Each structure stands twice: as structure tokens, then as C-alpha cells.
Amino acid sequence: MKTIPLFSLIFLTITSANLWAEPSAIAKTLFIKPSVSAQSPTTERIIERGDSIYHHDIIHTQTQARAKFRFDDGTLLTMGENSVFAIKEFVSSKQKKHAVLEFTQGAFRILTGSITDTSSPSFTVNTPMGSIGIRGTDFWGGNLSDDGSIDVLLIDSEHTIEVSNSHGKVVLRQAGEGTTLKPNMAPLTPKIWPQAKVQKALNTINLP
Fold this sequence. Notes:
By secondary structure, the chain is mostly beta strands. It contains two helices and 18 strands. It has a nine-stranded antiparallel β-sheet with strand order 4-1-6-7-10-13-14-17-18, with helices on one face.
């Protein structure tokens, strides 16, 4: 019988351990109002307070649900009901700061942490109708109407937000300014939202 060298056995053991190792957590769940689930490439799980969020998780909230997550760098993500949000990439280290998130439906709010504390921030939220480029800010995005459009509101920031798609781009420069993404159109010209519209947007993600 042919024997396997000792160093090969060690290599096989280490490789197997790496294959089955749990992926690194990138965020923790701060608040959950059921029911909220996360779908990974291999499984789906119900999320509870204190649970970890991982790269490539797709988070789903159900009717009347709310969820809030804190990423390793301090970034806060709040989700409203009937929302879908995917974590494509989130890396915040001395060597690399880069985030790509994907919003599909519902409503969300993001307050960025140290991941945007760099001269050239790389933080993007992709949506079905365009992308939101963030330099470090507190902003809201979501569906305020039933026509499929996506609204974006700059809540508070010293930095700007760039909202763009294949038809054009706009920049939100001051708190209270918003724009709308509609099918087959450039983002609408930014305007200061009336207080009633701002409150309607914030109500979608306010925690009880």
C-alpha cells in the first residue's frame, strides 16, 4: 500500500480547514424587528440581534420589519420594510477601503464610518436605475411612489453625493437636497425637498 508523506497530510488538513472555515463577518446586527433574513450563496437564515453579516449576503426585510447593522468601520445601515439589500463588497483596512452595496427595493439609510476617511473614497450603492457614489455622508434612498422610481435624499454631510446612470448624473451638495431616478431618464435636477417629503422618507426607516 502506498503511503502519503506526512507533509502532504498536513497540507490536506490545512486546505480542508480553509474550505470549511466560516467567512469573516463584516457587520453586526444592532436591531431587528422580525422578520428579517439573509441569503448567502449557500444558505438562507433568519437574522437575530447580535448576528453577523457577511460578504455577499442579501438581506430581506418583510412587512413592518426594520433592521439596523453596524459595519466594522462604524458605517450604519438601516433598512425599512419590504427591502432588499446586498453586500457585494466591504473592505476597510489600512491597505484598502472599498465598498459596493446593491439596493433592489424598499428603503434604506446609510451613515458612513471610517471607510470614507480617505482622499479618494470608493463607496458605491448600485440600484436598478443608477448608482450612488458616496464620499462620506448620511443619506437615504428608496421607493416613495408606486411608479418604480428611486428617490435619494442627502440628510447631512460635509461631502457631496453623485447620483448617476447611463443617461447622466447629478450631485447633491446640501442637506435636504434630493433627486429621483426614473426609467430611461437622467437623474432629475436636485431640489430641496419640502419637510413633508423628508419626513415621509425618514418614516420608512425610523425604528420603533
